[in-house]
Each structure stands twice: as C-alpha cells, then as structure tokens.
Design goal:
It is found in: Cell membrane. The chain is mainly alpha-helical. The chain is about 75% helix and about 0% strand. The protein is built from 19 helices and 2 strands. The chain has a two-stranded antiparallel ribbon with strand order 1-2.
Length: about 425
C-alpha cells in the first residue's frame, strides 16, 4: 500500500496537472497516463476488485448454508438476528451522535462560501413496505447474479433449514456444503497471497488522480469526518468489545489491521467480505455458524461510517446555508439515520439516499450534497474500513454470548497465519 501511494504521488508530480505527458524510451514516446495510470494501474486494480467480488456470493451462500444447517436449535436464528441487528443499530446511533457533537463543537461549515451552481439529484428512497418485500427473492439465481445480499441471506437461511430438516438426505447435502466451504476458503487464501499487487495498483491509480485542491478547500469538513471515523473505529468499537465480552481490544485491533487495509483499498464492504470472514473465523475465533450470518448482514446494514458522514454533513450544510437546527432537529437526524440504515438496506447508492432523507427531514436543501461530493473518495475508503471493523466486533460479541467463540484462537497472535500462506510450487500437500 505504501509503495502504491508513493508511486501515485510520483506520477502526479510527473504529470503536474497536464492531461498527458510522454516518456521517450528507445525512440518510442510512451504516454504516461494512458499506459501506466489508465492502463497498468487501472487494469490491475479492476482485476483485483473483480476477483474479490467473484468470491462474495458463493462464500456467503455456502458458509451460511453450512452455519444454518449446523445449528442444533433453529430458534437460535431469532436470537442471532435480534442481537446482531440490535448491536448494529446501537453503534449507528452512537456514531451519528458523536459526529453531530464533534461538528457542532468545531463548526466545519463556518466561513465556507456556498457555490451558487451546486446541484445534486438523488434517487428516491423506496417505501419501507417495498424494502421488506424486496428482501424475499422471487428468483434466487437472479439474486445471486445481481449480488443482492439480503435476498441471498434469506434464501441461504431457508435452504440451510431445509437441509437440517431432511434427515439422512440432508446430512449428505450438508457434508457436500462443508467440503465446498473448505474449498472456497482456500480460494480466498489463494487470492490473499496475490493481494499486495492488487492493493498496489489501486493505491497507485487513486493517488495519481486524487484532486488535492478540492480537499484543501473543504479541509475542516474533511478532517472532522476523518477524526470521528478514527475515534469510532479505534475507541468506540474496542470499548464496546471490552464492556460486553471482556476481551482484550488491543488484540482485536491488531488482528483487524490487514482486513481494514483491504477495506480501505477496495472501498467496498462487499468486496472485502471474503477477507472479513476469514479474519473473523481464523484469527478472531468466531464459529462459522455465527460469522456466516453476522458478517454478510453487517456488510448490508451496518452503516456506521455513513452515519458519521451524515452527522457531520448535516451540521456542515446547515452552517453553510445559515440554517439554525434545534435540539429536536438533531434528535430527528439521529433517529432518521439510525432507522434508515435498516429501512434502506440493500438499496443501491444507499449512502446518498440516506443523506438526502436526513436533510429533507430537517428542512435542509438536498443541493448541499454537491458541496461535499468532491472530498468523498478518501472518506469513503475510511468509512469502509470502519464498517468492517464494526462487523467483526459485533460477530465477536454475538459469538461470545452464544458460546460459539474460541478464546484460544483469539489470544493466539499467530492464529490463521499458516492458512494464509500458499506455496505455489507445491500445491498438493
């Protein structure tokens, strides 16, 4: 990652704001941007992201079927869902509350001039009834093809229950899925061995094309969101983990480092899901029957990072437009953002839709979103790292409460390292 960032800065310096520059080698004029940035860096990064996304659907479906059919008590699913959703809602409420408090104290919008040409169009949010209807797939194959995570989760849970209730036939199917799960996790490990190259390409392209002028003009807003994100990931999550489980939060943060770096580079909770699952299972000691449910669910409904952005953005836009918000308005923002994280789960572009809902709820102009979009790329990467850390924390808490947690794996600093290394010269062990 560091090498990619350095190369990105170097290419930005070489291009120096120009659309294109050429490098003469052996009489050939090689276009720097077209060949390296839009060529090698772009292709390498996109292949890496596509490879990660390739694993998401089979990993979620197979692991969740395995986890569900291994449950001795099917009523346990209700407890898992209640605990997981409850924890995700609580952390979201804490996230946006802290964000609003920090923004009010620092005042990132004070002194920022509003651009008169700022416009923004956002898709309409679906009704709550439609969201619940859309959770259930009419065609599970289509759901898998489109990557609709909530529909995949519902179908996998129902399929797993059917397997558990099918006697000897179900046992044979369950054994097949257990073997499939082992193979898919090995495929995840294989891609992780190639990950440094993919991360390098992603970082090199990002830091070559990043517009630092836009960030400088909104530096106060950028730093407030970044500070709250770091506080939530490094202080709030570890505190909740310590209070509810008694586990050492330093061990948790150390073991989450690689997964968080992946999330930062991909900027996608779903693309990082295979890495998060592997970390939660093999490094943090959470049983697959828990993680196969909590991690995919968190990738869909855990929006702590987005809630932080919404909290700061609401205060920022209010200050820019000279609107005074009351205590009731702020409470409404917290309630709307927290409930919307469930009510808009699985909706494409959900972050901006949720922000538009929050702004409309307190009478702020939706056009204000256009003011902050320019600095959202780096913040989005950090939000993703925070979100997957929250997914792992909730998984640990739920697993500990259900007796599905291996403390020896959690406390072992080298847990999971052996599985992460593949000798490509000796594939058969």
């Amino acid at each position: 990652m560091t090498a990619g960032i350095a190369v990105g800065f170097f290419f930005q310096w070489l291009l120096a704001g120009a659309d294109e520059r050429h490098l003469a080698i052996l009489g050939l004029a090689i276009p720097l941007k077209a060949f390296f940035v839009d060529g090698i860096f772009h292709v390498g990064g996109e292949i890496f992201i596509a490879s990660l996304k390739m694993l998401v659907v089979p990993l979620v479906f197979v692991s969740l079927v395995c986890g569900t059919c291994s449950l001795s008590d099917t009523s346990k699913l209700g407890r898992l869902g209640g605990k997981s959703i409850g924890l995700y809602l609580i952390t979201t409420a804490i996230a946006i509350s802290v964000a609003i408090a920090a923004a009010l104290f620092i005042g990132p919008g004070n002194g920022v001039e509003m651009r008169s040409d700022a416009t923004f169009d956002v898709s309409a949010a679906p009704t709550l009834a439609q969201v619940f209807i859309n959770i259930f797939p009419s065609n599970p194959i289509q759901s898998m093809a489109s990557g609709n995570m909530l529909q995949i989760i519902v179908f996998a849970v129902l399929f797993g229950l059917a397997v558990a209730l099918s006697g000897k036939t179900g046992e044979r199917v369950a054994a097949l899925f257990t073997d499939l799960n082992e193979v898919i996790m090995k495929l995840v490990t294989l891609l992780m061995n190639l990950a440094p190259y993919g991360v390098f390409f992603l970082m090199a392209k990002l830091f070559t094309t990043l517009g630092y002028g836009t960030i400088a003009s909104l530096l106060k807003y950028f730093l407030v969101v970044l500070a709250v994100l770091l506080f939530h990931g490094l202080a709030v999550y570890p505190s909740i983990l310590k209070i509810l489980t008694g586990l050492n939060p330093i061990i948790f943060l150390r073991k989450m480092r690689d997964a968080a770096l992946f999330a930062f580079s991909t900027s996608s909770s779903n693309a990082t899901l295979p890495v998060t699952m592997e970390t939660v299972n093999k490094k943090l000691g959470v049983n697959n029957s828990i993680s196969s449910f909590t991690v995919p669910l968190g990738a869909t409904i855990n929006m702590d990072g987005t809630a932080i952005m919404q909290g700061v953005a609401t205060v920022f836009i209010a200050q820019v437009f000279g609107v005074d918000l009351t205590l009731t308005d702020f409470l409404m923002v917290i309630l709307t953002a927290t409930l919307a994280s469930i009510g808009t789960a699985g909706v494409p572009g959900v972050g901006l839709i949720m922000l538009a809902m929050v702004l409309q709820q307190v009478g702020l102009p939706v056009e204000g979103i256009a003011l902050i979009i320019g600095v959202d790329r780096l913040l989005d990467m950090t939000r993703t790292a925070v979100n997957i850390t929250g997914d792992a924390m909730v998984s640990c808490v739920v697993a500990k409460s259900e007796g599905e947690f291996n403390a020896d794996i959690y406390n072992n600093p080298r847990a999971g390292e052996k599985e992460e290394t593949i000798d490509f010269h000796h594939l058969k062990q």
